[in-house]
Amino acid sequence: MSMQSGVLRQGPEKPAGQPVSSQAPPSRGQPAAIRADHVSLVMTAGAGGDPPKEILRDITLSVGRGEVVSLIGPSGCGKTTFLNTVAGLEEGYEGSLEVLGDRPSAGRAEVGYAMSRDALLPWRTASRNVELGLEARKMAKKERRELARDALERVGLGDHLDSYRAQLSQGMRQRVALARTLVGNPSLLLLDEPFAALDAQTRVLMQEHLARVLTEYRGAVLLVTHDIPEAIVMSDRVLVFSQRPAHVSKEFTVDVPRPRSIVKMRSSSAFASLQDRIWSELAQGEEGR
Amino acid sequence: MTLSDTDTPVAGGSITERDRSRVPNAVWVWVIRIGFVLAVLLSWQETATHNLLNPIFTGSPSGIYTAFIGLFKTSIVTTDLRVTLDETLIGFALSIIIGLTAAYILNSSSTLEKAFRPIISGANAVPRIALIPLFIIWFGLGPDSKIANVVSFVSFTVLVNSLEALKSADRDFWLLARTLGFSERQRIWKFVVPGAVPVFGATFELALIYSFLGAVTGEILGGINGLGVQLETAANQVQTNKFFAILLLIVIVTLIFVQIMHLIRVRLMTWHAIEMRGQG
Fold first, then answer.
1. Beta carbons of A87 and B179 less than 8 Å apart
2. Which residue, A84, A87, A59, is CA-closest to A239?
3. Could you tell me the pLDDT band of residue B87, with boundaries at 50, 70 and 90?
4. Band of pLDDT at residue A102, cut at 50, 70 and 90
5. CA atoms within 13 A on the CB side of A125
6. How far, in Å, CA of B220 to CA of B233, rounded?
7. What is the domain range of residue A174?
8. Which ipTM value was assigned to this complex?
9. Of A74, A152, B125, B156, which one has the greatest count of Cβ atoms within 10 A?
């Protein structure tokens, strides 16, 4: 596979407040993978009598089919909540939200969801853990097993099919979890800080790995991360969330064709400058508190 | 670029120096174990032969051995052992069914659980032995009152431990189950119950021992047949050797059943052994 040392150009920045979704996603006559129009979310008072919390305010964005978009923002700003809303885990939002042309709902086969903790079942082997991703659908056992093996081979764990969780390193566990997310061949991947639990070195290796897996993947990806370099190397666009209540404060386009060489990309000067600008955008958000 | 450099499997690997010094020497374990038992038996035998203690009250290992062999020529093994086993196993099975069902129901409704918590704690605090005379009034001197006794001894333990095991399920599993599209029932069966198997196993082993205890205690306090009845008779007639022989029989039978349970548990939990070993 040719690793192009793509020129890292930055797309036009859009000031906050403007409708970010004006940039048409590269759709081929299909509806966008995610289309959020003025989505707001207020968490009502809990049992403890806490005051209602405004988490999301007027979030407008879209993710096209085949596009990888990162959400980055200060910790606790609500990016995970937004991801969970898209996944159908949070209800009671206002505004309009379409996920693959439908209202969001949990447990859709065409949506894959992964979190930073691998959540592997310790009593199942790697391949049986991957099969879990298919068990909610009607599918013959044999077919499930074959798909699970394929998925594990794709993440480079073809010779660990029968290993239990305790026999795998943290990086391998994360890859099993990734295989479990990919095995159903979803059209949309929702990744919530998928590498946050890993040490720095393993994280970079996993990013390489995910980048390689994504070159064969035709669906859309929404990646929540707090790691700026990760957001840049993985995505076509980086959306910066403000402090809570979160809205999209800025959008950056990473104009490097995929597949990319993460190592080469990281050492380019354009990467450094984009990283600086995202960083200062985040820092501004912190000050404006 | 490969991932293999930092991604070595972790379990089943080498034992570190520190661990090795903690691995017990198998030969010494057996020397100490057998030595201790022999020392106790020998000094017991000697005190009996030399009348240091009255053998009518203390018995002697050789006397117990003779009495134990003698048991197999009596109806104690053919009738009483069977009665006790029936009571124990039926009571055990009922307790597991009652305890698990109650735990499953309480786990599925936090309202019910909250309502019943103090009631269960209160009922569990009742000294169960005190109920035996009542069970005899209700169910008679036969096996039924012993089964009731076993159930009252064991089902609460099963309920409390199983409920705890069901509730300790990982929150991440709940999230995963939802995003993968599993129903609430599937979630319990696929994500919660298998993880609770180690606790279930330990609970069942304990429950089995308590079932024997419940049956024998019930028989001692009043019954027609059973090893407890025979224990009581032997004690009343000051047949100390026979008393110990029956006790030995109870211990052996209990251990056989507990060992069977243990083997089943180990077979079901290969993963658990690996998990325990793997964390180093």
1. yes
2. A59
3. very high
4. confident
5. 14
6. 9
7. 118-185
8. 0.78
9. A152
